[in-house]
Design a protein that fits this description.
The protein contains 11 helices and 13 strands. By secondary structure, it is of the alpha/beta class. It binds nicotinamide-adenine-dinucleotide and UDP-4-deoxy-4-formamido-beta-L-arabinopyranose (WQD).
Length: 341
């Protein structure tokens, strides 16, 4: 029988790409989203790419009664919980918004799963939990560092909520996926990242600068102790990342989890500097980007990339797409959004 997966926050960037991959793998999806950081174009894009109708419920996961109705109405054994606010800087300015939204929605989903006897949950965690790592690459055993933002703190707290709930309620199994830096867009250019206002993240800032929406990209610091002086990250293609969710759901559905609660790093295993990313973007897309070196950004770690051995072995998942292909897709998406060409 076809399994259904509830995808909270599924109208957003990672959720919409994951919905496409779930449907491609034979799952049905029910998307719940309050559209606080997205619009219906994500869901419509999923339908266009897959040729399937997608069940969409506009609801706030913090509204327990509205969320309960989704559990009453639909039969599903698995949930992927993307619904959260994600802007690090905003979380420093408005911590309570982050604690309320990210913690309340997560407590609600876990409580409802327990109440309705639903088994499997994947949680969107983040490499931010590692902070400035003592040694690289980071494994899942690397220590978590005290969070440097309320956003990062919500990721640590939600991981702990999941660990403790799975330990207490025998019916529940969980996987936390620690994403590194998700970038790019679906190769169809029908779905992608839709940042509101000025982008915080590097790749949307690059593509908007290339499109002429932003005048100039600031590279935050060229005096870090790295080969070219800029920070190093592990940029993971969005479709590869989406597929990691399918692998995590498959693992739980098939009863292959080795522990009731598991954690996996989801990255490429390679570190790329800001300068490298910018010059690769220019090269593969055949354009020149207007950029300048600016002071360091507060809170940035110097370098982080993933050891992905565990995900490779246990999930049978590997990052497949090259950074070149990913940056081509990012530009194709930006051109689609802006109506360029
Ligand atoms: P996104 O903002 O594009 O998607 C999140 C979606 O959740 C949005 O559609 C938003 O409208 C919805 N949402 C937020 N609060 C909600 C609520 N209370 N009820 C219902 N819907 C709600 O962000 P994304 O980049 O797709 O991120 C998805 C998840 O992955 C988040 O939990 C985020 O913290 C996590 N994550 C993202 C990154 C990244 O760089 N994008 C990295 C690590 C982890
Ligand atoms: C990448 C690199 C910047 C913008 C953030 C969150 C993290 C996770 C992913 C959710 C850094 C540099 C950036 C610009 C630049 N999100 N940069 N100019 O900071 O690694 O991670 O998103 O969980 O929690 O902190 O990603 O894309 O903002 O920055 O030079 O205009 O690009 O300094 O070195 P980051 P990012």
């Amino acid at each position: 029988m076809k399994q259904t997966v509830l995808v909270s926050g599924g109208a957003g960037y990672i959720g919409s790409h994951t919905a496409v991959e779930l449907i491609g793998a034979g799952y049905d999806v029910v998307i719940v989203d309050n559209l606080s950081n997205s619009d219906m174009s994500g869901v419509e894009g999923v339908e266009k790419i897959t040729g399937k109708h997608v069940t969409f419920v506009e609801a706030d996961c913090c509204d327990k009664e509205a969320f309960r109705r989704v559990f009453e109405q639909y039969e599903f054994d698995s949930v992927i919980h993307f619904a959260a606010s994600k802007a690090v800087g905003e979380s420093v300015a408005e911590p309570l918004k982050y604690y309320r939204n990210n913690l309340t929605s997560f407590v609600n989903v876990v409580e409802l799963m327990h109440e309705f006897g639903r088994r499997n949950i994947v949680f969107s965690s983040s490499a931010t939990v590692y902070g400035e790592a003592d040694s690289l690459p980071v494994t899942e055993q690397s220590p978590r560092k005290p969070a440097t933002s309320p956003y990062g703190n919500t990721k640590q707290i939600c991981e702990d909520i999941l660990r403790d709930s799975v330990a207490a309620y025998g019916s529940l199994r969980g996987i936390a996926l620690r994403y590194f830096n998700p970038i790019g867009a679906h190769p169809s250019a029908l779905i992608g990242e839709l940042p509101r206002g000025v982008p915080n993240n590097l790749v949307p800032f690059i593509t908007q600068t290339a499109a002429g929406v932003r005048e100039c990209l600031s590279i935050f610091g060229d005096d870090y102790p790295t080969a070219d002086g800029s920070c190093i990250r592990d940029y993971i293609d969005i479709v590869d990342l989406a597929r990691a969710h399918v692998a995590a759901i498959d693992r739980m559905v098939k009863g292959q989890s080795k522990q009731p609660y598991e954690i996996f790093n989801i990255g490429t295993g390679r570190g790329v500097s800001v300068f490298e990313l910018v010059t690769t973007f220019e090269r593969v897309n055949g354009l020149k980007l207007n950029y300048k070196v600016a002071p360091r950004r507060a809170g940035d770690v110097v370098a982080i990339w993933a050891d992905t051995t565990l995900a490779n072995r246990e999930l049978g998942w590997h990052a497949e797409r090259s950074v070149e292909d990913t940056l081509r897709a990012a530009w194709a998406w930006e051109k689609h959004v802006r109506g360029i060409e």
